[in-house]
Structures are given as C-alpha cells and as structure tokens.
Amino acid sequence: MVSVFRRRSILRLAACLCCLLLSSACGTPNQNSGVASPQGTVLPTPAATVAAPGNLITAGSLTVGTDPSYIPMEYLDTANNQFIGFDIDMSNTLAQHMGLKLDVKRTGFDTLLEDLTNKRFDIVLAAVTINDERKVKYDFVPYFRAGESLLVQKGNPLSIKSVADLCGRKVGVQTGTVENTDLTAASKTCQKNGKATIAQTVLQSQTDVIQLLANRRVDATYQDSPVTDYYNKINPGQFEVGGSVVTSATYGIVVRKGDNSTLNAVTNAFKAVRSDGTYDKLFSKWSFSPQQKLS
User: Fold this and answer.
1) Are residues 91 and 198 in the same domain?
2) Residues 88 and 229 occupy one common structural domain
3) Residues 272 and 239 in one domain
4) Average pLDDT score over residue span 204-212
5) What residue stretches are annotated with the Solute-binding protein family 3/N-terminal domain (predicted)?
6) 5 lies in some domain
C-alpha cells in the first residue's frame, strides 16, 4: 500500500525531473523500461469508518486503475519503484476509510475506462475530467477542480495565448484526453476559417508529450491545468503558461454505471476524507491552490 503521508522532498524530485525528463539533451524518456509495477509498502488493514463495496474485484482490497504519467497527479517514483501523487494519496485514504488495502493497477489513459468496464479495477482515479459523453457510460464522484491550459517555450515567442492561436502550429497532446478531442475540433474550426490546421503530435504518455516541448519539436502542449502549472513551476527558465486556463472542469473518481454499491462506498469515503481534514492536507502537500478544492 502506498502510504498517504510518506514525506518526500519536492525540491529533490523537481531537480531530478528537470535533469532526466526535460533537458533537451536527454531525449525522450523510455516509458517501457521493463520495471515491474510497484507494490508499495505492506501495511496492516486499517479499521473501516464506512462500508466497503460488496462486489470488490479482490476481497479485502480496493483495486484502482491509473495512468502514472501525469505528474503531479499520479506518477512513478523510480527511486523507490512506487506510485505517488495526489491521486495515489487520495486512493489510499479512500481505501483506509473502507478498511481495505490499496492495489494500484497501471494502464494507458486511453484504455482506462474500457478496462474499468471490463472489471479490471473497482474504480479509476486518474485525473479524469467529467463530461457529458463520459457520464453516459460511467458514474462519477467529483473531487478536484481543474481545467485545460497551454504550456509554451519561455518568453512565448509565438504569442500563443489561446486555442485560437494554435492554427498552423505544432501541438503535443496525450491520446484519449479531453484536450485531444478539443484540439481536433479546434483544427476543423481553423480550416473552416481559411487558416492552416493544427498539427497534433499525439502520444500515450504525458511525460513524453512534455518532452516534445523540451526538445522544441512542438510549439506548445495542451493538458490539464495542474500538470501545466507543475511543469512551469519546476522549469521556470524553460517554459511558461500560454494565456490563462482555457476551460474549467472537474475531475471525478470513476465508477461503472449502475454499480451503486461501489458508488455509495466511494461517495461516503470521500465525505469522510473531507470531514477528517485529509482533503485539505493533501492540497497543502501537493501545493495546489485552494480554488481547486470542491466547495
């Protein structure tokens, strides 16, 4: 189980990330290095404060699906071979309140929801934006306010401040994301208005998307605002945010449609996380703005 309050030096991690991930001399990180999925620290099962789901994939464990390439929400700490991040901590606290151990399963973002449907996980907790299309097939427990934003080179030499400025530009984006869909629609608008289309480079890993910008292979990257802000913060001399948040949205913990046992358990556990002060502590730990909390 990944301990929710395991302390980590954010500055040390940031320095490591700058060197290993974002130096143009380093090249694209290998996301398939053969490293086994981390198992985390084995801890005793905590006492439950809310009822656990009655239909768990594995008895005694909350199985959570995620894509560990979305810093700072979920990612792999290679030094200890463990998943860490805001969403991992949230998963751990939910499991604790249900009296369950945590089992995190990794997969690509573009297959997360399909894998949930196929009952590989009990829930998905991976910075998934709630939208009307997804609500048709899945239920959600909202937990985080975010949005979409652009990351560009320091000094913003191309004056990219909105999606409308991307016509004729090269843009990196992660496959299966809301931003991927939005860029496709925006490109059609460019063409309709007699402008050049947006040249998307679509990759599976968000880490690799950022590397495109570090290597100057794209003019901008488009992703959720917490990720944009994080990379801008740890690389102030290399990147900057292009304009303001493009759209506001809410992340949700994803549950299979009609799985009321799990939905009720997650809803009650999240209420407990908020009421016991853990929610506020996680926002402080990961340096998120209070405006990103649910009201």
Assistant:
1) no
2) no
3) no
4) 96
5) 61-290
6) no
Contacts of 201 (CB under 8 A, 6+ apart): 170, 171, 172, 173, 209, 212, 217, 218
Counted residue by residue, the chain has a size of 295
Q: What is the mean pLDDT of residues 218-232?
A: 95
Q: Return the CATH number at 42.
A: 3.40.190.10
- pLDDT for 157-186, tens place per residue? 999 999 999 999 999 999 999 999 999 999
Query: C-alpha angle with apex 83: 109 to 147, nearest 5 degrees?
Result: 45
- Residue 28's beta-bridge partner residues? none
pLDDT of residue 91: 98
From CA 254, how far away is CA 263, in angstroms rounded?
9
- What was the pLDDT predicted at 248? 86
Give the structural domain span for 166. 147-248
pTM of the model: 0.77
Q: Which of 99, 2, 91, 12 is nearest to 49 (CA)?
A: 99
Q: Do the domain assignments include residue 82? A: yes
- 286 within 8 A of 278, measured Cβ to Cβ: no
| 233 close to 286: Cβ distance less than 8 angstroms | no
Conformational region of residue 94, where left means phi above 0, alpha means psi within -120 to 50, and beta covers everything else: alpha
Number of domains in the chain: 2
